[in-house]
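hi! just following up on the protien thing from before. the input was this:
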Amino acid sequence: MLHSVKADASPEEKLDFLLRREQEVQASLERTHRTLEGHPKRWAADIAAAAADLRHEHGEGLAGLRNEHLGARLGGVVLLVVGLVLATWGNLA
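and the predicted 3d structure came back as:
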């Protein structure tokens, strides 16, 4: 690809060179335009994927917190029921 024209070129050669350069520049601009048009679609897909990952991680984190002290909570419920039974039994006796 030639990016300059000889100084001693005829006017026709110079015009031909300028027309070829104009076509090359137009083709380059069209490629750039097509590339830029596709970016919002890719960005939307990237944002959706990131949001899905964050929702998944958030759900896992909540599940972990919910189950973190499950044994202690169940033991507390058992002790509460035993205490209620003993208190009720003591009041009835």
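Residues 4 and 17 are 8 Å apart (CA to CA).
Residues 11-67 form the longest helix (57 residues).
cheers
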